[in-house]
Protein 1
Amino acid sequence: MSAFLASVRSVEEAKIALEYADIIDLKEPNNGALGALPLDTIEAIVRFVDGRKLVSATVGDLPMRPEVMVRAVEATAATGVDIVKVGFFEAEIACINALRPLMQRHLKLVAVLFADANSDLECIPQLAEAGFYGVMLDTLHKQGQGLCDCMSFVQLERFLVQARAHQLMTGVAGSLRAENIELLSTLNADYLGFRGALCEQHQRKNQLETSKVAHIRSLLQKYHANTALLTA
């Protein structure tokens, strides 16, 4: 079963997600696709979760400059999160190489690639060789098409197969909706990430709504059970 990643921006939202999600992901939706929360907010959420679930955090929509990315990753990792997510908005081998020493210190970094932008989806071998913990697909533009509108099932499957072949943790996100779960559950990504589908009026900048978080959890369980029956 794919794990359930829920993106939150406050301790109050983390309290809702904690009951249902497997990964508590920290981001500020008002600041872009991978908007970063203030470091003190990240630290407060980490203290609240207190090891009960994995916590990941984004470093922001950063320019592809190695020194900027290294500083942001170091600062975010110092808050105590389990995983740091770094967006690659274009192919930039210099940035991948600049982060290599941090991963040699056993920091867990997940590279975020964007299906609707200029991300190089063929950089998986370089990410694995550098020591990245995982790679995920997302969407950059949050007003319009979601991931399942941008990529076919075959393209998604190819991405996941390649990532698994390089022993990378795999994630799928990008304006995912409840109706996408049945299809995505058959791909067996390590986790599916949600924000807008969990919020009031399905708007990612609104607050999390407990009933919507619970609904996504129930669908993940339902379609996992159906997939298991089909493959038994």
Note: Residues 62 and 69 are 7 Å apart (CA to CA).
Protein 2
Amino acid sequence: MKIVIITGSSRGLGASAAVECARKGMGVVVTYNSSPDKAEAVVKEITQIGGKAASLKLDVGDTSSFPAFRDAVAAKLQSVFDRRDFDYLVNNAGYGLFNPIATVTEEQFDGLFDVHLKGPFFLTQILLPLIADNGQIINITSATTRVATSGVAPYAAFKGGLEVLTRYMAKEFGARGIRANSIAPGAIRTELGGGLNDEFEAMLAGQTALGRVGEPEDIGEVVASLLSNENRWINAQNIEVAGGYII
């Protein structure tokens, strides 16, 4: 059984990805920051469809917690999956902030940086010895790296950095057969940034070729598919999954 760790998978597209990966026969480690009950609900859903899953607490914005998380991962792999390593890491955890550049505080800037770029960098680094050869890393970026959207400059800038980092991961980890790709969602109906009101959703749908915003399942299914062996020759790519947003 292949095993995937998906950060921030207690809700939204991370939860969808966790369930879709389980449907493809993968064991799943769900991580949460502040909602253990939601994480356990995802684990329960996976077990109900015949899969195997476990949950762990992780604050991606706090690198000092990573050594303890690594140890917890090693213990959980052994106790739940009878493995000493895992196959796939999906750096998904994140949050939104909508402020124009003129009003962004340094604290807000640092918070976004810690979660969206610094955290994935050092989390991948510390977990790398536990990733099996021929595994894969997927970083969740954003369509805002291609289309400038007023109010999300720091978020988009750090997601852009994560997109570049993905190619360097592919370059440096390729000798072990580890692939690295990024997936850039467009507007998705999740709680990120407070969710979508009707007016905002209609505007976004009008800017999308397929005439709607995305659902978490639209991304979760792509994550699971990209991890499958059928896509083994896709590497160092950023794949926008946005229904044709502003094309």
Note: The chain has seven helices and seven strands.
